[in-house]
Amino acid sequence: MSRWIEEVFLRDFESRLDEEIHPGQHLLVAERLQFKGFADEAAGLRVLQSSPEGPVSSTVVDFRVGRLLGVAYVVTLGNYTQQALTQRLGQTLERRMVQAILEVPKRSSQAQDS
Question: Reduced to 3 states, what is the DSSP secondary structure of residue 41?
Fold first, then answer.
């Protein structure tokens, strides 16, 4: 996963700067962001693209929990960074992923008792 986050998620955005990514939309900025407080690895980006409606900003965090990959993002019209909100969403998703992983053995043992 570490390699995927670096080589695919981060580099794919960075390598497409100034390219048309969709008709009428160009990737203008791909800035790396630091996200803290995740249990395992996390990497983030602030992406700015042009569109016919004006600039569109995306704040994205990719994170992993063991071998699972999670993604949270916030998209806004305008040139904004929503790092705090994206971090809260990502950490909430991370907690739910961990809860789901930890509940699997409980469900299995309950099913066997029935």
Answer: coil
Distance between CA atoms of 86 and 48, rounded to whole angstroms? 15
High-pLDDT (> 70) share of the chain, %: 89
- Measured between alpha carbons, how far is 30 from 11 in angstroms, rounded to an integer? 9
Q: Are 43 and 87 in contact (CB under 8 A)?
A: no
Rounded to 10 degrees, the C-alpha dihedral 27/84/71/58 comes to -20
HSE toward the beta carbon, residue 36, CA cutoff 13 A: 0
Strands (E) in the chain, as ranges, are: 20-22, 25-33, 42-50, 56-65, 68-77
The structure's pTM equals 0.81
Query: Please, are residues 62 and 9 in contact by the beta-carbon 8 Å criterion?
Result: yes
Banded model confidence at residue 84, pLDDT cuts 50, 70, 90:
very high
